[in-house]
Amino acid sequence: MKPLIxxxxxLTVALTCGSDDAQPKxxxxxxxxxxxxxxxxxxxxTFERSDTLYPVNVVHRGSVIRTLPVADKRLxxxxxQIGDKRYDLFDYLAVNRVAGLLILKDGLIVLEDYExxxxxxxxxxxxxxxxxxxxxxxxxxxxxxxIASLDDPVTRYVPALRGGVYDGVSVRNVLQMASGxxxxxxxxxxxxxxxxxxxxxxxxxxxxxLAYMKYLPRAAPAGSVWNYDSGETNxxxxxxxxxxxxxxxxxxxxxxxxxxxxxxxxxxxxxxQGGMGIGGAGLSATLRDYGRxxxxxxxxxxxxxRHTVPEGWFQEAGAAHRIGGKFVDYGYLWWPxxxxxxxxxxxxxxxxxxxxxxxxxxxERLVIVVLSARSKPTGATVxxxxxxxxxxxxxxx
Length: 397
Hints:
alpha+beta, Beta-lactamase, six-stranded antiparallel beta sheet, 16 strands
């Protein structure tokens, strides 16, 4: 057989039959994901299909879609410096493995970009950005009168915790991650509390999350120390569900998702089929719908001229608070931007592992959404996100 004919036959077979490498990748399991042992393509599939990792509830959108107008002048590039090195937009997208980037200035799209196979209909995992949504629902429940005060004990709304370590812990303590309950958040350590809670949740049995949290040891008096604790945000979610008598997904849909002009339904993890929502993670939505939520936050929670959360809620929720006699750079499940760069004054963000960000800068009327697939849960960011956000704010000022 002539070499050219043979090569053509080989190419035809390859195109017709494909190869193992061309087969669709499957999502990783939760433990492998938290270990940071995913191949790049496998990781993208996992984040695009995170609704397959746990049972989910649907967060239903409404019938009217809010158009996000495109600005006449688009952001073509942005330069920023870290140390003695200069970078630009293209470095940020490539080096930090960004799958989706949306920048909204004065409610207008100045940049929208998709990479790694993602697109406008891709629902991407938010991870801990969901904590900030749970915080917002507590604000809504406070405004609605379902929660009387942030200083109420959590056991008033979550009676399953009575008789355990959360006796005497307030809703505010949980929002600030200042319960004083001992907790190890290390994602990659199979013996950490975070991983043990994950193992319990993977049984998909109702009540496992609260049962694990109830009998943890106490490290300090409530309100005296700050310690990052994802398990505690499941309690925040349970407060919402106990106070409203609705699932997290239903309350989110009724208060926000169906009223903000969302383009797509979202999904939110539950610990079991039809069971308690996981308040600290598991919300998956599209890039633009995260942006629409950001615009709602930027408006101080106003929909149709009325406050959905108490007036000034996000200013308080996104600010540092005094815990145990000193200020801690953490709000009500939101992260204030670090002090030191004046362009970030009053700005805050929702943040999730593997490089998820929702940056809100009220004074600059700026919302930035970043969806990423970085190689490890934490510590894999190469180019500082805050430096990029600051450069964008200055460029658009």
